[in-house]
Amino acid sequence: MPNHVHAILFGNEEFKISPFIQVWKKTSSYRIKKFYEQELANYVDSCPENGPIWQPGFYDYNLESDEKHNEKLDYMHANPVLEKLVRDHVSWAWSSARYYELQEPVGVTITL
Predict the structure, then answer these.
(1) What is the rounded distance in angstroms from the CA atom of residue 1 to the CA atom of residue 15?
(2) Kindly report the CA angle at 31 between 28 and 33, in degrees rounded to 5?
(3) pLDDT on residue 21
(4) Same domain, 54 and 20
(5) Are residues 112 and 72 in the same domain?
(6) Phi, psi angles (nearest 5°) of residue 85
(7) What secondary structure letter does DSSP report for 92?
(8) CB neighbours (10 Å) of residue 36?
(9) Please, are residues 8 and 63 in contact by the beta-carbon 8 Å criterion?
């Protein structure tokens, strides 16, 4: 989505979401800014030099059952279509729908 990200994360008992999100935001901010510099030079000039990529905070939800997992995954896949960003969910470039339906790689490891 242009203004937010959905992800389903799995971790063991020691996994802490807050430190993970902090590192994810820091790393992705750096990479997004580099992408803008290299690919969208006209756009990057209109952005504040030290402007944030991410808003503070995040929302998490524990998926306690396969039913909830599938419900959230279906929502994530439908979201770009509902927002009229693409015609079908496999067309969204950053969606795992292509992995599940077309067995195409999507840039991240998906474990079932």
Answers:
(1) 26
(2) 105
(3) 94
(4) yes
(5) yes
(6) -90, -25
(7) S
(8) 16
(9) yes
From 91, 56, 52, 74, select the one nearest 8 (Cα to Cα): 74
50 pLDDT higher than 80: no
How many whole angstroms separate alpha carbon 56 and alpha carbon 25?
10
- Average pLDDT of 49-63? 86
Domain holding 91, by residue range, is 63-112
Q: What is the 3-state secondary structure (H, E, C) of 5-73?
A: CCCCCCCCCCCCHHHHHHHHHHHHHHHHHHHHHHHCHHHHCCCCCCCCCCCCCCCCCCCCCHHHHHHHH
Count: domains in the chain:
2
Whether residues 56 and 27 share a domain: the answer is yes
Instruction: State the DSSP H helix or E strand holding residue 98, giving kind and residue range, or none if neither.
Output: helix 97-102
Q: Answer yes or no: do 53 and 74 share one domain.
A: no
Q: What is the mean pLDDT of the chain?
A: 88
Q: In this structure, is residue 8 part of a structural domain? A: no
